[in-house]
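Quick note —
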Amino acid sequence: LQNYLPEEVKRMINNLSLRLSGELSKKEQELDSFIWKPENHYNSNKRKSGVLYIARHGETDDNRLGLLMGRKDIELNKNGIKQAHILGKKAKKLKIDFIISSPMIRAKQTAEIVKSHIHKPIKFDHRLIERDIGVYEGLTMQEVEEKFQKGFDGEMAYNKTPPGGESAQKVKERVFSLMEDIKRKYPNNKRILIIT
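Predicted structure written out below.
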């Protein structure tokens, strides 16, 4: 097709392709920080053991706006969809056996996009659902501090139960319950990607 285009249009396409390629590479590097990668996935007997990769869902409009999100079920934005495709390409290289995902729309979309790259099954598990942040839902950190608590920071956000929300202890209990199930149900040579 490019053979039939004017030279000026060909140059424009090439420049845009190079720019997009650079942006995707930059996004891929950013995405690396969202994937927990174990340094050593061999046990003391030198037998290969399973690997658990954990990835966050792609970006949403609320993420972009800096709004706190809990149980609000919101879709990925265009950037989040791009991030999910990058994660899919990485998952293919990691030879993932299957995906376990939160059933929230943003995680589900991320998992479905990854699945389109690796063609492996997805298991949705309610224990991976986002923490219920009660009255903080849809606010910025600054608004939470102004309306509810002075000196509010990330540590307080984790340790203090939001009014009408879920305690960190409850989140920990349900996630640890899932981890125990994974250890019990799956052979120790599986490579599992968790998306939450």
